[in-house]
Amino acid sequence: MMKTIAITGGTGAQGGGVANIMLKTPGWKVRAITRNTNSDKARNLASQGAEVVQANFNDENSLFKAFEGANAIFAVTNFWEHLFTGKTQEQSGAIEEDKRAEKATKGKVRVPHLDYKAKVDDRIKSELPDLAKKATYLFFGYYPSNMAFLPALKPFEYPGAFGKYIQLLPTPSTAKIPVSGDMTVTPGIWVRQILANPSKSLGKYADVAPEILTFGEMMEMWSEVTGRQGIFVECSQEDFEKIWGPAGNEMAMQFKFGELLDDWHEGYDFVGMEELEIKAEEVPGFRKAIEGLKGLL
Ligand SMILES: NC(=O)c1ccc[n+]([C@@H]2O[C@H](COP(=O)([O-])OP(=O)(O)OC[C@H]3O[C@@H](n4cnc5c(N)ncnc54)[C@H](OP(=O)(O)O)[C@@H]3O)[C@@H](O)[C@H]2O)c1
Fold this sequence. Notes:
Elements: E1 3-8, H1 13-22, E2 28-34, H2 40-47, E3 51-54, H3 60-67, E4 72-74, H4 89-92, H5 100-104, H6 112-127, H7 129-134, E5 137-140, H8 146-149, E6 156-157, E7 165-169, E8 176-179, H9 186-196, H10 198-201, E9 205-208, E10 211-214, H11 215-226, E11 230-234, H12 237-260, H13 286-292
Bound molecules: NADP nicotinamide-adenine-dinucleotide phosphate.
């Protein structure tokens, strides 16, 4: 009997990567959840054999319906959409905070989106113990696709500089960050292996991040792949916020958090790649991801 995985954010980066792999996983059917079943991405999923259903995070009943009969659920946290419209968090509704970032950096930095997600985990554990027994919590690293699709992180051609490109970020080029690899593949490999290894993964955290790289290393690989000279330039948090508004400030706080924290795993019970039987050759890293995006960089 085939099992069904219901995927929220199936038209997005994380959920799209999960759908891509689970559509090819024997024994599983994919139900992709979207607000708009007529979008190009939704139609594309349907053409690959996914059941595409309409639901909205702001309408609980629509989610109950979309999850009916599912054997597994991939749930994405949606935080940034309102910030990218230029609204502040206060304008978008109060958020509950867990102060994860503040605790981990001994009060040096506050990162609302990390706190908000930690609060989701806390509520599952304290208010929904039956769900907590069946849940695995995923951390994602920095997406290589940010350099193609996210204006604030995409290198831009500097006018009059003989074809040189700049990536302007509020962090040093030597700062390290976990990187998620090819987002069309890695999320799905992790989810497939978590589902195949429940005794190893239930109740634990897993890191969808096959590599840790510096921003300078990523810019170097970007240059090698594109054949353009890319230069990483550090700016202040204040200037980044002036350019990108509240979303820029939120990103800058995330980068500061990364600079201050050596070990993202501290305080969490993690199940690693090896334990989940994920082979390195199955999860394309930054370079492969950038090669795949070459026409869009
Ligand atoms: N960029 C990075 O480097 C990075 C790294 C680590 C973690 N993250 C985290 O990734 C998360 C976002 O995931 P993503 O990158 O996969 O997002 P994404 O590519 O922007 O896609 C968002 C998805 O959420 C769905 N969605 C949004 N609002 C919805 C609503 N009200 N009801 C139902 N569905 C809704 C959208 O579906 P429709 O539009 O089709 O309805 C879409 O499929 C954020 O929490 C972010 O912090 C990002």
